[in-house]
User: Fold these one by one.
Assistant:
Number 1:
Amino acid sequence: MSAAPQRVIIVGGGPTGMTAAHALTRAGIDFVLLEGRHEIALDAGCNLVLSSMGMRALGQLGLLPALKKVSSPVTKFQRLDHKGRDIGDTMFFTYIQQSHGYYPRVFSRYNLMQVFYDNLPAEVRSKTLANKKVSDIRSTEHGVVVECADGTSYEGCMVIGADGAYSVVRKYMRELALKDEQRANTEAFVNEEKPFLTTYRCFWIRFPVLPGLKVGDAFETHGPNMATQFFVGEDSAVVGIYERLDEPTRDPRRCTVVDEKPFVEKWGNLPLTKGTTLTIAEAYAQKMDAGFINLEEGVVKHWSWGGRMVLAGDAAHKFTPSTGAGCNEGIIDIVVLANHLRRAFSSGAPSPDKLNAAFKEYQDARYELATFGCKLAGNTTAAATWPNAIYKFLDLRVFSSKMIQKFFINQGVATTAQTPVFDYIEGEEEIVGKVPWVHAIPSRTQIV
């Protein structure tokens, strides 16, 4: 059999997968991207938040001007309880801007994905393929073969699984690990079949910018078993309604349109904003689109297998969206992974051993940070949904303090400042705050 192409197969065309497409393009590594949905740019789910570290990485890829045009900065959350009473603003975003020079920015998924797609070189866009639902992944002597439900197949030397919480790449990784004869007597390299726990589900509603709302507004409603996050953008407003399930589960029920009416009847009278009478029911009555998603949480133990497959983003670690960290962490996964892959591919198609070493370095760099971020996001969602008196007290009496908020941000400043950058892409530092970045964006003379 002839050697497999020196090509990376990216499975998943969301923010993590498209970041990988840009990163590999800049590294000079051939790839093909397979997305199961019918389009790369789709408007689905809640809005996404990009922080200074995510925007900085995408700025290295030349996307910053286009991203600014389709997003809105968020300076603070205005908070209220289920009865519409003011429970204090959270100023985390303002304190982050002071430290790192940039307010987080809110995007619709469609606008973010369109920026990713439009800013790929024209000759590269043909490598991003929609309607490609993966039906099988096989490891061969020289590489991997990915087969799709439409009968097509793609051969490469490795696969990046950027295909979300229900990752098909992770599924085939597990199956191959279980079949590996050399490891038949141990499950040391086998992931759990269901690695994520679901404690919350989210009902999201997109609707027009109604009177009394202005671009950049951000609100949260907190209270027993339910919290909301509400953002107002240029073209629409989006609210995510986080409901605590009766019991955590590794087998969450998939909700459909028939579940929407009972959900709105249950929570519809709850307020979304300060200073207006807007409720969940009124937002739903004006809806442009709506739907349910489960909010899985957890970190997969093994992010790669056999020097052939590696996971990134939600396929490797899944956060609740309360801190807005999930998308950013997926982007930084690709920064670290791409740096290692560029070196691995520097002298041709790398061996499985060489890729295994790169994958290990990547996971070693990212695992603890992902674990901490997952725990922080889960605790933030728990605080907003008041599962017990302790969380309620913390939410109302502790986290409402501006001094406490600033203290917590300051605890994370040093970690954020150490965020890596692409070590092979030159550029200028456009995001600058009072805390310097440890890893500077390289200049031409620094790139080897």
Note: The radius of gyration is 22 Å.
Number 2:
Amino acid sequence: MATIDSHSSESETHDEHGHDHDHPAWLAHHFDTPEQQFDSGKLGIWLFLTTEILFFSGMFCAYAMFRMLRPEVFEGCSQFLNTKLGAINTGVLLFSSLTMAWAVRCAQTEEYKKLVVMIASTLSCAMVFLGVKSIEYSHKWGMGLLPPGSYFYDEANPHPTAQQIVDQHGFSESTAYFLTHSLYYLCAPFALLLIGVFAWLVWAKVTDNKFQYACAKPLLVVCLSFFGGVGLGMVLESGGGEHTVAHVDGDHGAADAGHGHADHEHAEDAHAAETHAAAPALDVESDDVAMELLAESDLNTGAKAMLEAKQAQTAMASGQVVPPGVEADMGIATVEKDVQTKRQAGVFFGIYYCMTGVHAIHILAGIGVLVWLLIRAIRHDFNRQYFGPVDYVGLYWHLVDLIWIYLFPLLYLIR
């Protein structure tokens, strides 16, 4: 009897800790209630997001330091960034935040069809973002707008061929070919993914596997969204004319176009100068005598100030050195600086690729987690008490969007 009681008590203990039939499958064994599990996961994701903020803060600090040291470089080089593409990507990510928040609500209310649609919409927005960014990267790589050491942009030849890159800039043939055809390399992985998902969809349809067909169908739309972003980026990039650096000395093209008119104006100016030089001097001395008489009165401060200003002007015209403590406008407002150098412009584009590239990697990571959520949503894994994973991924996605909202004005709108 003692043995039986012992086995009985062990069986009851085992049931309590290992095979409790009242314990839901989605509730981890080390949690007592769904609320405890959700709060623990929420704390974990916030700690993770804190480390992400610290990680990006280092790059933002580097940006602030270099921009403080070379503001003219950042202002000049930012003109190569297409503001339209950046604005489109900003709108796409803001809309994806809406769909992600809506997905969390659908998981809470157990609206599974809407949940799948919202997650798929968020994925599609992420793919459109990457498609537009691929156009931006490939266009700049072909122009030579690269980090220091690889920067080779030439204003006289902004779109060199692969052979010109090899001959003039010393790159290898394979590197030059990659730079001039980088869009194909960026699109190749997504094209293979599209073919694989399409084959999966056909196989699921043929074998009548409803679950896999339900997974492959939205993923096919997601893959096509990348190439929609590529097409949108190509249209906007071809129409954008933001790839010239402004000069202080004005528009050379307009001056060249009106060369004959400019010569005529110069001739008129020269004639006017000769006429002015040959014209008899006005009665300046009589004016000076009258001004001196008026300035003798202490009450007439205006005449006294005019006389002093006229004397200073006469002294400067005669070549007299300006005495210390007297400010004089020498006629030079700004000095034109060449910022398109490897050492200066390369630093800007190095920071640009670093910050936007790391952000794109986070987009890719978010896509992977969202695909996992999509499959689980189709499987109806979430309910009113268990929607934590959707909420956690939503917080991560909002952080990724928030970082881009800071990157867009700091990189694209500083001019």
Note: Residues 366 and 397 are 7 Å apart (CA to CA).
